[in-house]
Design a protein that fits this description.
There is one protein chain. The chain has about 150 residues and is mainly beta. The protein has a single domain, classed as Beta Barrel (Porin), CATH 2.40.160.20. It has one helix and nine strands. The longest helix is centred in the middle third of the chain and has 8 residues.
């Protein structure tokens, strides 16, 4: 029998975001690009700041299912740079997703927003980030995305 899966909370990424740019309907949905302009990383043993570059590249499907792929980096308090590729989906009732698109508040518990972040770094202290699988439980706010990152054990 395979080992049972469990998760352990590791840290929270708060990514501040700028205005949405849309490339329009590309045939499979609406392509959106959302710049990442800063933020922070807070957790036990890993803290830092989200660097002010990168973006979340999204496709909003006709049923309002949103495919997300964010690419950005953060710098730890001790100077290590960690590159992040975070893929995921966001889905929920159409009227609530439309409220989010307008920048209106929505209870995060009503929206399914999960991600699979992958990390890359040359810093020896944080190499463990490349040697584990992580999942994220996320919430979209008008000016930021908050992702609680959990390690799969």
């Amino acid at each position: 029998m395979s080992p049972e899966l469990h998760t352990k909370y590791v840290f929270t990424i708060t990514a501040r975001i700028a205005e949405v740019t849309s490339a329009g309907d590309i045939g499979t949905g609406v392509r959106r690009i959302i710049p990442i302009i800063g933020g922070d990383v807070k957790g036990k043993g890993i803290n830092g700041k989200v660097l002010p570059f990168g973006a979340d590249f999204q496709i909003i499907r006709p049923n309002e299912l949103i495919d997300l792929e964010a690419k950005y980096a953060f710098e730890t308090d001790d100077g290590a740079v960690v590159y992040v590729e975070n893929k995921g989906i966001r889905f929920g009732p159409v009227e609530l997703l439309q409220k989010l698109k307008r920048g209106e508040p929505v209870d995060p518990k009503l929206i399914y927003f999960r991600t699979v972040p992958k990390f890359e770094t040359g810093a020896e202290k944080y190499r463990w980030l490349m040697e584990r699988i992580f999942i994220g439980s996320a919430a979209r706010h008008a000016d930021r995305v908050v992702i609680d990152v959990h390690q799969v054990l």
